[in-house]
Design goal:
Family: Belongs to the short-chain dehydrogenases/reductases (SDR) family.
Strand order of the largest sheet: 3-2-1-4-5-6-7
Keywords: Oxidoreductase
CATH superfamily of the largest domain: NAD(P)-binding Rossmann-like Domain
Protein name: SDR family oxidoreductase
GO molecular function: oxidoreductase activity
InterPro entries: NAD(P)-bd_dom_sf, Sc_DH/Rdtase_CS, SDR_fam
Radius of gyration: 18 Å
CATH topology of the largest domain: Rossmann fold
CATH class of the largest domain: Alpha Beta
Largest sheet: 7 strands, parallel
Number of domains: 2
Amino acid sequence: MAGRCAGKLALVTGAAQGLGAGHARRLAEEGARVLCTDINGDGAQATAASIVEEMGAGHAYGIQHDVTNPDDWERAIETADAELGGLNVLVNNAGIGVAGNIETCKFEDWQRCFSVNVDSIFHGCQKALPLMREHAPGSIINISSIAGLIASDTMPAYNASKAAVWMLSKSIALHCAKNNMQIRSNSIHPTFVDTPILDGTAKAHSLDKDVLLEKLARQIPLKFVGEPNDIANAVVYLASDESRFMTGAEIKLDGGISAM
């Protein structure tokens, strides 16, 4: 299949819905073969099935995958090798947010936030690099957040974990470059994106979804909330050979927030 990512073999975590599902679909549209993983295994399989329905058998697969579990990572990498024929694009998308400021955030929530957002990338890269080396050139794409660069008093766990993703991405990039692996590592930093997560946010604050979107848009210089493809298009760029000279960098997709 022709496309900007033709021949790429990609694993996308958190692919049951939202950004992860969008990343998987755009990669497949551009010619990649994709393994969709999520702790919601049925959801990951549903994403893969929708891609296969549109593009044909062999374009996508879906499995259950707890990104905090090193054994699950081994199984996911083995599945990528068996079903895709290797691996050269790793999209670490799975992530969570937790409530509470520095006085009210529970330590177990802090630990869980770091486990899902940061430990998952440690485990994933450590397990994936041997196979990615065999199928280089490759690209590691870590989904951070603008909250990893700009702090808020209401979400220290999320701020700190996403900042860790940003710096971990750079360390991985330098390691791969120093060892001439031909594998790049970069991070993407979105702001508000219209995904199912915002449905829950609206419900939690007893707001109509459209009202919430208007409130969020007022905080963004471009005055609109992003769509999943706004982020997925950057994933396609980083997965493709178009970005072969880009590593250890960050892409801010924040509608101008970080420029203020």
